[in-house]
């Protein structure tokens, strides 16, 4: 390669790096400025005061409790499904996978309306529950159901990938040593997939905590009963902006922390793999 070609190549490389760097910087600014603006609109004293209000405390408590409960339900119900889909081929598996992934791309309002049509007073199932005076829509239970519906794919997808990554030879060795399938699953498969499963649990909890659209449609926005943090942020926009900003900051910090934890777990998994 001649010196002229080398200079042209270097200039093209530098030009590409400058353009790429500019685009990356522009994107980072676009993401960062709205988040930073939240922290500039409320003083530390106002933040503490707003976060100590009864409405904010109710929203924080309800969000933590419902997100925790919904995550537990997703793990209990989703783990067997993820393991079966990771280890066995059966007729209709692609349909099952599609159904479990559907809430990810489904608009939240559609999810909320679907849940309302299923569990509402005159819904497909709700009409029969109503006979026994069991009401689900616009209750705290509805919040949990909405969170389970929208957050479950985040765990099931991660759990399936985790189980697929476990070497079948370890399970086979356990079986040859006399362990039952259940013992093998509990003593071998789960420990080997634990790190990735934990990442799925954390992401599921975060998604449940941030759920808005389906909850609003299916559970309503009632303080202390169905008003989670996202709903409180929406509800207080006109009446108490400080509370909205304070709760938004909590969710931003929590979400940022969740991503860091998941990345740290993923990095440890890759190191010890």
UniProtKB/TrEMBL annotation:
**InterPro entries attached to this UniProt entry:** MetI-like, MetI-like_sf, ModB_ABC, NifC_ABC_porter, Sulph_transpt2
Gene3D superfamilies attached to this UniProt entry: MetI-like
Q: What organism does the UniProt record list as the source? A: Methanocorpusculum vombati
Q: Which NCBIfam families match?
A: Mo_ABC_porter (TIGR01581), modB_ABC (TIGR02141)
Q: Where in the cell is it found?
A: Cell membrane; Membrane
Kindly state which keywords UniProt assigns to this record, in alphabetical order: Membrane, Molybdenum, Sulfate transport, Transmembrane, Transmembrane helix, Transport
Q: Indicate the segments forming the ABC transmembrane type-1 domain, all copies.
A: 60-262
Identify this protein by name. ABC transporter permease
- Primary localization: membrane
Q: Pfam families, from UniProt?
A: BPD_transp_1
- Keyword Nucleus annotated: no
Query: Can you tell me which family this protein belongs to?
Result: Belongs to the binding-protein-dependent transport system permease family.
């Amino acid at each position: 390669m001649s010196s002229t070609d080398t200079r042209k190549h270097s200039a093209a490389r530098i030009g590409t790096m400058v353009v790429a760097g500019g685009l990356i910087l522009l994107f980072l600014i676009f993401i960062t400025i709205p988040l930073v603006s939240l922290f500039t609109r409320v003083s530390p004293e106002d933040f503490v005061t707003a976060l100590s209000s009864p409405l904010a405390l109710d929203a924080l408590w309800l969000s933590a409790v419902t997100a925790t409960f919904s995550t537990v339900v997703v793990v209990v119900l989703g783990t067997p499904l993820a393991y079966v889909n990771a280890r066995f081929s059966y007729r209709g598996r692609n349909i099952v996978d599609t159904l479990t992934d559907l809430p990810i791309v489904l608009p939240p309002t559609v999810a909320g309306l679907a849940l309302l049509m299923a569990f509402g007073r005159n819904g497909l199932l709700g009409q029969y529950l109503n006979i026994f005076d069991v009401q689900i829509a616009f209750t705290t239970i509805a919040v949990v159901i909405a969170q389970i519906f929208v957050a479950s794919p985040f765990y099931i997808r991660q759990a399936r990938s985790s189980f697929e990554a476990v070497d079948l030879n370890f399970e086979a060795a356990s079986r040859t040593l006399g362990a039952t399938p259940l013992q093998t699953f509990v003593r071998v498969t789960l420990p080997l997939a634990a790190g990735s499963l934990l990442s799925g649990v954390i992401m599921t909890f975060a998604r449940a905590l941030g759920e808005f659209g389906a909850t609003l449609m299916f559970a309503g926005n009632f303080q202390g009963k169905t008003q989670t943090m996202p709903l409180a942020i929406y509800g207080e926009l006109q009446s108490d902006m400080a509370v909205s900003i304070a709760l938004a900051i909590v969710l931003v910090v929590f979400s940022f922390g969740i991503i860091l934890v998941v990345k740290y777990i993923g990095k440890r998994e890759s190191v010890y793999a």
